[in-house]
Amino acid sequence: MTFLNFSEEFRSLPKRIIQIANAYDMRELADAGGNLPFPAKDDSKADMALLIEITNNLEGMVEVKSTVIVLNDSERLASLKESIVRIAAELHGGQAFMPESLKKRIEQVCDPAHRESWELESPGVVVTLINQIKDVLKAEGVLAWSETEHDPGDPFVRIVRVDWLTDEADIFSHVANPAPAGKACRYCLASERPESLALQPVDPERSSIDVTIAGMTGRKMQIMQPGVVYCHRVCSGLWLAWVRIAEALEEAAA
Asked: Which residues on neighbouring strands pair with residue 230, listed in sequence order?
């Protein structure tokens, strides 16, 4: 695959050619009696020789091979997986990305040799490819998905780092403390727009057996608040697993 290699030298050629041609025309006028303050016509021979040389070499300059690495399908998916894993590693929980901003982030964290290849891709293609490797990412401890299946008007891509908390005390604190203000997933804390349909109530059937805790916090409060606790569909099971960890810690401390 070939592209124009727009080096500084190549981009300067049109201006240089015009300068040479203009100078030559002005010297022609001077020789015709215009009394213009230009060198004699003989001095323009070197410029014209340069112009001829440039013209003869243009074709070779235009056909310089591109240095862009064109990834095949498997290489592209592998590169995307590595980039999403790197992005997730920086998250304290999860985040909802617009496709355009996610694509730019991928360009920043990907293998430098792949950067120009990703620059040529559209945000829509990136979203499609992410949906193709969801299971591969999940095996890496990363959840990544779009909500278009449930809400066609939602363009965001969610990325969640599953192991953003690993210490049991931190998990207990996260479960027991009140949720942050605003609309966000209770598990990963990714913020959502007020009109988003991405969050769903967790386990509504448990409304009659809400769990209460004391001991470690010195007060009673509800861990589970069905109809109030909202998570992403893919985060609900992870939230419930953390609730069970908190319950076990509370029981051990009683």
From this structure: 201
**Run of H or E residues at 22:** helix 8-29
Enter the pTM of the model.
0.68
Q: Do the Cβ atoms of 120 and 68 come closer than 8 Å? A: yes
The DSSP symbol for 63 reads: T
For the chain (254 residues), the mean pLDDT of every run of 10, in chain order, is 46 64 58 50 63 65 62 95 98 98 98 95 96 96 95 96 96 89 94 94 58 51 62 95 92 80
- Closest among 167, 165, 254 to 214, alpha carbons compared: 254
In the structure encoding, which two tokens stand for residue 123, read together? 């945000």
Give residue 232's identity as a one-letter amino acid code.
H
CA nearest 79: which of 113, 128, 123?
113
What burial class does residue 103 get, using C-beta atoms within 10 Å of its C-beta: 0-12 exposed, 13-18 middle, 19+ buried? buried
